[in-house]
Design a protein that fits this description.
The protein has 413 residues and is an alpha/beta fold. The chain folds into two domains: 199 residues, Rossmann fold; 192 residues, Rossmann fold. It has a seven-stranded parallel beta sheet, sandwiched between helices. A seven-stranded parallel beta sheet has the order 10-11-9-12-13-8-14, with helices on both faces. The protein is globular and about 65 Å long. Bound molecules: adenosine-5'-diphosphate and magnesium ion.
């Protein structure tokens, strides 16, 4: 299957060529024709499966080049907005649509000037977009396509009231596209209240990147995590390493430990300014920093190819976050490795992760490392493998074997 066969116009295919994609990913294959046909679409596919192009490309064939806002993309973080913009810049090479990117943490003036000059596509985070609207500088009355990207994350981050306000500023006749890595009851509620007879597109679980990721668990006591990390970085050929910690303070701490050991790293978390985050990300992309130390808040913003290893220095709070974290490696068909440091107090979360993955993760020791007192999981431990509903409302399609009913069996929040 080629991009040509999806029904995209020649001018959009010019953009595809400049993006360097040779064939569409499953979510692109399934979503693009429905979007071109004008339907509301809900797209659910794991992180790293190409959802951005799945909406950006057909969207370009749905809007004219008028200099008024024809498409509005709302996304939770600045990093995501910037990444979508990068994709859209390439995609519009043959169409000439003009794009404005709107997010907080930077000056208003350049964004306002851009809007005043006239744009066809706006890519925005909710807060700044509403600020600009409050200044009387936003006209969404010509929006034909509204995209809610990473809807699950926007709900998790408490952005829904803002998003609802934005929706109310768009015409009722618009086409709605909603993309999400997960389909929780909350997301489904939004789908039902906002979209009009949506086509649900869900890619097969077999296509998920998680399967290409080698996952290992290193049991260690909490006090020895830093030492273990330094040992690993010393010994193994870990090239581009993304380390996740539970809090921003711990991220800063790990960064300092690495600096002391002569490992080039940069911290990236919600406590850093936009400029600092961008610099950290660019340094990591270019290879100047071997390690990027991050928290979950910014996890989705990290779209860096060729991350060789994700290290969970701390376990995340939820199994979903685990999947998102490790999805940062093995992007676009590559393979990758995920290593999880497991302290005694994190056992319960490991059980939850294994339940969601439906498999037991392999526990290993680092040879020659002098372990202090620690607890090692039973290698025969049982994993609850009850299939987990992707759509849990009972109104839409289910993955085989899942339970019906409104009860959500996803990770605890
Ligand atoms: P998602 O939004 O599903 O997490 P992205 O849209 O960020 O995923 O895409 C993940 C990566 O895959 C990006 O680096 C992107 O450039 C790449 N990608 C997307 N579609 C294709 C394709 N058809 N062929 C090759 N690479 C692709
Ligand atoms: Mg995305």
């Amino acid at each position: 299957m080629t991009f040509e066969e999806l029904g995209l116009s020649p001018r959009v295919l010019t953009g595809v060529r400049s993006m360097g994609y040779s064939e569409p990913t499953p979510i692109q294959r399934e979503a693009v024709p429905h979007i071109l046909a004008g339907s509301d679409v809900v797209g659910c596919a794991q992180t790293g499966t190409g959802k951005t192009a799945a909406f950006v490309l057909p969207m370009l064939d749905r809007i004219e080049k008028t200099g008024t806002i024809g498409a509005l993309i709302v996304t939770p973080t600045r990093e995501l907005a910037q990444q979508i913009a990068d994709t859209a810049m390439k995609a519009t090479r043959g169409t000439g649509h003009r794009i404005a990117v709107i997010y907080g943490g930077v000056g208003y003036e350049p964004q306002l000037q851009k809007l005043r000059k006239g744009v066809d596509i706006v890519i925005a985070t909710p807060g700044r977009l509403l600020d600009i609207n409050a200044r009387g500088e936003l006209d969404l009355s010509s929006v034909k396509v509204l995209v809610l990207d990473e809807a699950d994350r926007m709900l998790d981050m408490g952005f829904w009231p803002d998003v609802r306000k934005i929706i109310s500023l768009c015409p009722d006749s618009r086409q709605n596209l909603l993309f999400s890595a997960t389909m929780s009851t909350e997301v489904l509620r939004v789908v039902r209240s906002t979209l009009h007879e949506p086509v649900m597109v869900e890619t097969s679980p077999a296509a998920t990147p998680v399967e290409r990721i080698e996952q290992r668990v290193y049991p260690v006591n909490a006090q020895q995590k830093a030492e273990l990390l330094v040992t690993l970085l010393d010994r193994e050929s870990l090239d581009k390493v993304l380390v996740f910690t539970r809090t921003k303070h711990r991220a800063d701490h790990v960064h300092k430990v690495l600096a002391r050991e002569g490992v080039s790293s940069a911290p990236i978390h919600g406590g850093r300014t936009q400029a600092q985050r961008q610099k950290a990300l660019e340094g990591f992309k270019s290879g100047r920093h071997r390690v990027l130390v991050a928290t979950d808040v910014v996890s989705r913003g990290i779209d860096v190819d060729e991350i060789s290893h994700v290290i969970n220095y701390d376990l995340p709070n939820t199994a979903e976050d685990y999947v998102h974290r490790i999805g940062r490696t093995a992007r676009a068909g590559a393979s990758g490795s995920a290593i999880t440091f497991l302290a005694a107090e994190e056992y319960e979360t490991l059980a939850e992760i294994e339940r969601v993955l439906g498999e037991r993760l392999v526990c290993e020791d680092v040879e020659g490392f002098s372990y202090g007192h620690r607890i090692v999981p039973n290698p025969e431990r049982k994993v609850d493998t009850t299939p987990r509903p992707v759509f849990s409302s009972g109104v839409m399609s289910h993955r085989g074997g899942s339970r019906r009913g409104g009860q959500r069996r996803g990770p605890r929040r």
